C-alpha cells in the first residue's frame, strides 16, 4: 500500500518501548505530528503520568495530531488495565491541505505501530476521562 | 467645504452596504447583488474601476481596512473573502475564509489593528477570524454562548479585544475576542479584567424588547450605544454604572455612530440622520440633521425627474410619495467619513434608495440652534 509519509525510525523504537512498558499507574502519551518538509512523522511531545485534561491542553487548535495514549482504565469489576489507544485529533477550521495530509498517512501509521483501538477527536474540549471510558467500555 | 450634504446617486439599485478606503478616494459598494463594485473618485463624481466577483449570494457587508488596504466581504452564501490588491496587475485577489457557519453572514468589521475581523451570522454565532502565518490560512474562532438568535451588527472596542454585538434575541452584548498569539493582554477597562476568548463582559436589553440593529462603542471605549427596533437608543457606561434609554418618537434606527464623546448620530427608517446629545448627565434627542429639502438641491431637468421616478418605481410624476429628506428610503448604514474617531467631521450614509450621502457634522452643530422638530 503506498504511503504519503514515512515514520521516523527513532519514533518507531520509542513506540515499541512505549507499548511494552510495564505500567502500574497513570496515563502516558506520545503526541506525533507530520513534518511537512520531510513528510516524516515525528514525535512532538512525550509525557508520562499526566491527566487527560493536561493532554487536552497540549493539543494545538489549528493542526491535526496523532496521539498514542496508554490510558489507566479502571473496569467496573475492579480490574485495572492499560489499553493502548490511538487518537486521531483533527479540529475544525484546519487548512484542508493538512487534513488531507494527516488523513492519508493515518492508516499507514496505524498499521506500522500496530494499534487496534482508534478514536476520532474533533475538539480538544471533548477529550475527558468520561469520554475515553465511554469509548473503551462500549 | 460646502455646508449642504454631498449626494451621490448611482442609480444601480438599493445600496446594501458600503465602505471607503483609508484616504476616501475609493469606494466599495454593493447594490444588493452578489457583486461588489469599486469606484474611484474623479472630480465630483465616482467612476467604476473594478468589480469583486466571487460570492454566490447577495453580499451583506463590506469593510475596508484603512491602513492595510484589505477589503473583507461577507455574504448570504455563508462565506467571507479577504481581498488584497495585487500591486502589479492592480487586481483585487480574493482569499476564501472558512467561517464554518451554516446560515448567512450578516455583518463584518475589521478590528482597529486590522489583524482580525469579526463576522456576525444567522447561525447564532460570531466568527472571529485571524491569519495564521505558519499555515498561511485564515482561522475562525466562534463566539457562541449565550447568543440565541441572529447577530445583526458588530462594533470593535478601541483596545482591539472587546467586541459589541447587537442581536435579534433583543440583547446587546459585549464579548472578549482575545486571540492568544495575536493580541497582547489588554489594559483593564470598565468592561472587565481577565478576558479569555468568549467571555461575556456585559449583556444589556432595551425597554420594550426589539431587535438590536446597531451597536457602537464610544471613541474612548467607556460607553456603548445600541439602537433597538422599539425605537429606543440606549447608552451604557459600565464605569459609572449608568444606563440611559431614550425613547425617540420616530421610526427605529438601523445604524449608529458617535461623532464625539457627547454626540451620537443614528439613522434608520425615518430616512434622515438624527442627532442625540449629552446635556449635563442626560442623553436626549437634539434634532434631525436633515431639514426639509429645498427644491433647488434636487435636479429640475426632465431627465432628473424621470430618473427619480424610476428609482422609486413611480409611473406618474405626482410627488405625493416624495419624502422631504435627502434620502427617499430607509438608511441602512452610517459610517464616519472624515475626522478622527474622537471628532468626526463628516459621515456617510447609504440607503435603499440607492444614494450615498456625505454629511457635515460641523455645520450641523453650528445650525442646531435653529433646528427643531
Description:
The longest helix of chain A is centred in the last third of the chain and has 18 residues, at 96-113. The model of chain A has no long low-confidence stretch (mean pLDDT 82). Chain A has one domain (6-136): Severin, CATH 3.40.20.10. In chain A, 33% of the residues lie in helices and 31% in strands. Chain A is built from four helices and eight strands. In chain A, strands 1-3-2-4-7-8 form a six-stranded mixed sheet. In chain A, strands 5-6 form a two-stranded antiparallel sheet. Chain A is an alpha/beta fold and 138 residues long. With 373 residues, chain B is mainly beta. Chain B has one domain (6-372): Methylamine Dehydrogenase, Chain H. In chain B, 4% of the residues lie in helices and 49% in strands. In chain B, the strands form seven sheets. A four-stranded antiparallel sheet of chain B has the order 1-28-27-26. Chain B starts with 5 loop residues before the first strand and ends in a 7-residue tail after the last helix. Chain A binds chain B through residues 61-63, 92-93, 95, 98, and chain B through 98, 100, 132, 135-137, 139-141.
